[in-house]
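Hello,

Our lab assistant flagged a job as stuck in the queue for most of the afternoon. It eventually completed. Since we weren't sure the result was trustworthy after the delay, we are filing this so someone can double-check. Below is the sequence as submitted and the structure that was eventually returned. Let us know if re-running is recommended.
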Amino acid sequence: MKNRYKTQAEKYEYISKQHGGYYRHNFTDHAYLYNLYFPPKAVFTHLKDNIQNLVLNYPMAQDALAELVGEIIQQPTESIVVGNGAAEIIKILSGHLAKKIIVPVPSFNEYANAAPKGNVVEFPLEFPSFQLDVDKFAAEAIKVKADMAVVVTPNNPTSLLVPKADLIRLAQKLAMHNCMLIIDESFLDFADNKEQITLEQDIDRYPNIAILKSMSKAYGICGLRIGYLLTANIKFAEAVRNGIHIWNINGFAEEFLRILPQYKQEFEDSCERVKSDRDIFYKKLSDIKGMTVFKPAANYIFCRLPNAALSGPEVTKHLFIKYNIYIKDSVGKTQPDADRYIRIASRTNDENSKLIEALKNVMYLKNE
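-- returned structure --
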């Protein structure tokens, strides 16, 4: 495919409308959020060695896929639904199952985007802390008669966690009103003490909780498209499964799930590397005068630009045009002062340092 741009400014306009394929365009991607240190080379070698079978044969259907994920997360098959990325499951939850869904904002836009018009209630997070007050959230969910509530933890774009005790209290309040709580834990592998924070191992105690997880982020496999939903509510799991077609996962994704248990230690080590890079990055960003930097629990950092600096969209554009670095501004999010906020994915220490210098150089540029 021929590139549809001649200048760096045209390249920016083109890239800002895309939802992937970034690797074809030669720039540093601090926008998308994935683990740079996983999978190890051995995984790619294995897929290459088996490419003929993977291409020529039908992949497995849902029950066998759920068994593979069950082995990875130590959960029963009937509690799991495997999606073509979390996005496929979100489409079923928001678009087909929920009659009224409530989502704290700012958040991952897909929950609201996938819902039919009029079915979404957006609940603003506390400002300017962006914390979720679960008691107010529960009260609003009950008031609007929501049958589904969503909490992303760590949240995207803020990278902030919702405490486990708060989530349990929220689930218990919603249970009395027949409201399912969807907890999106896609970025939880990058949080400290993730074993104490996740609700996966407690899932059988809360039948109105479903955990959703995109494996693309933590496992660095965006192109394979794998996500799963986990719930002790078998009736709910069946309703989600009914929305999925028979061969929703391709052979490469299936084979990845099959061999993943062999790489448990490599995966844990990769997450530690991501966290270490992110923590150094957080300290450096916090040193920028006037910048408000939210302490991250995921592999990306949410910042408010100083009042005297350029806006988020201007900084994003200058970074790309002058330094070939791409970040995300918050203009598409539902929040106050959206044009003052940016979200930056943490990459390697070297790339993070280059971004810091570039950011300092463009923040106060006069608009040309």
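-- support follow-up --
The delay was a queue issue, not a problem with the job. The result is valid. The mean pLDDT is 96. The longest strand covers residues 209-214.
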